[in-house]
Amino acid sequence: MYGKFSADGREYILTDPRTPKPWVNYLTNGRYCTFMSHTGGGYTFWKDPFVNGITRWGPRLKCAALGREVYISEMGDDGVIDYWTINWEPVYRDYDSWECRIGLGYNLIKSERKGIEGSVLYFVPPDKDLEYWLIRIKNKSNEARKLEVFTGVELSLGNIRSDLLSTEFHELFNRVYEEGGVLYAEKTFWDRLRGIHSANEEWPTKVFFASEPKASGFDCLKDAFIGDYRLASNPIAVEEGRCRNTESEGRSSILALQFSLGLEAGEEREILVGMGVLKDILIERDIRIGVAKDEFSRLKAYWDSIINEGVVVDTPDENLNLSVNIWNKYQNRINFWWYRSAASYYLFGFDTFGYRDVAQAIIGTLPIDAELAREKLKFISKFQFSDGNTCHSFSQVSMRGNRTDHTDVPLWYPLVVSWYLKETGDFDFLYDEEDFLDGGKATIYEHMKRAIDYVLSRRSDRGLVLIERGDWNDALDFVGEKGRGESVMASQMLCLVLDTWVELNEFLEFTDVASRYRKEKEALKEAINEYCWDGEWYVRAFKDDGEAIGSKQNEEGKIYLNTQSWAVLGDVAPEDRANKCMDSVEKYLETDYGTALFRPAYSRPDRSIGIITRFIRGEKENGAVFMHASTWSIIAEALLGRGNKAYEYYRKMIPMNLGSNPAFKTEPYVYPEYVAGPDSPHYGEGSHSWLTGSAAWMWRACVDYILGVRPELEGLKIDPCIPAGWTSYRIKRRFRDAVYDITVSNPEGVEHGVREIRIDGERYESNILPIYADGRVHRVEVIMGRRRDG
Ligand code: GLC
Q1: pTM of the model
Q2: How far apart are CA 107 and CA 669, in angstroms?
């Protein structure tokens, strides 16, 4: 094992840097973002990961020559300079001790070598668009020491893809210079739109690199600092103990500072380095050690408020508590800010944000910050067309989007708005007006209705939803190439959306609308049950020529997960089929790490299905344990009242548990997008960590469905579905201006069912708790068991 969680669970403390992959953290306030490995490597951007790159992105994080290393060099008695980094990478010297504390919004790396203890705290404060490096160097030896300290980053500036693909060309616009002891970087060309001739403007961002105390030397020219035929592991400046004080015009650029320190025995010194964008920042005011320390306290308070806010659980499962209370909340917020767009260890990053990804990230943030969720919902309303379809993805910079006809995408909007209404009771929101992307505007209610009507209109003669370019599964991209293929999952998803829409309209007393859409739901449910049941499970889709995929007739891709879980979520399956299809999931798809997306994986490309068949077996959408989809099997089991099974799937998928398996390799504190499935040669290996829809859904699967405390239009529903072995647990949940302090006990050892509820000592007859607008804490006692009448 490479490390462990701190006692309070708020840090993961690595004591061995040799992790199989970089273990990453996001230091970000939602605008300035530094994506950082446990040794300090990574990538920084401002507001947009694609066109506003600051440091150079590298596929292995350390490809950039300088990855935020803090080098220390010292002249030995023999006249030879010895050097190392606090980070360990990229010089790889032996150390006496090393640790990296991965915290909420910060990394703290500390190491000791030859009696010199160095530490560097990297963080991005909540309200300023910069990053601080607070460096401490302590002389723990018995003699005075003279050290040179070097800090540096490698610049990208602007469009990161152009920078990587046409490096020398793009560097011709760089101007990086020193003024009054501060380094500045600018670029006179901004490749904001695709194609090099499309823009005639400069990058509107100016980057600074400043320090307290002022540096004794600097370099902006990469070649001067690193030297010819050398790497970041042996830069000439460090090896010789002196920067060249170079500026860079039109060449590969870095920002490097040098500090000369004379340290008495036992003496400790602090150095602050700040890098950021010159927007609302005053270097004289903000690059101060005292200010940075205050900002760090503010950062801690910021994350504390998120951890203590909204929902806090205390169950018999420590890893569950750690995940739900701390790390899953943290990951949800990072996902809310960056979805899948930010460059990561696995992906270069996109210039667009996925519509369905943004929508689903909202459900993870709702219980903690409904106001943020509301703003985002309004924002994504603008990416709907007036016919009801939505963009598949969009750019926040150009405010453009692309229409691709993935049939599930429009449906996420009405679904997520209804979750928002259940959380907040803010029904006025339905009457806010928002623009359509192609002109005109309408109320949110109308936006929802048009999305549903649009998908209702995209159906086959049999009444099933067409698959067109794909559904939730982007990789089923050629099933409906000719426009005739059908998606069973999108049909089931439409069922859930129709149920939610009917429920809302009934609540609003729009009875005609409710009854019209109820009929649509019934007809759709009937069609699915007539055409899509395969004997033991529901098939996944039909190709243009009518051939089923996900059927027992298929040799590969026989049984898919999504159409079983969604048959339950969408209330499509009658009881016997619901139990049977979820039994099939257990029988054919359960693995050591959760439920696989389908099995067996495809072993060769099939043109008539698409890219899903082109990934190697068991990886990504080709039959991995695709966590995002696996979360729905937990919810389905809980809806069926099968608490043991729901918990078993959930437990296997918590990062802390996945991380106990050496094959996993990825961070044990955040969900990955997938774990390689049983058909992969890399079975058990996590991949695409951090930016994944599983974060939001895992959190809701646990809190709303296993612990069973979920918002409804009428109030807070209590519907626990837990392992029979649990005797009690507690959950505090803020809901519409009151806090419900709920204790659930399970004296009969049941998996599901509530026998009695008491609120503030008084017996209460419904399992939907009333809405209190009194700002107070209400004590709720729930006793599970078989209900006794009278
Ligand atoms: C990725 C995409 C998401 C999609 C899923 C399945 O996570 O970001 O939008 O639903 O893959 O293809």
Answers
A1: 0.97
A2: 14
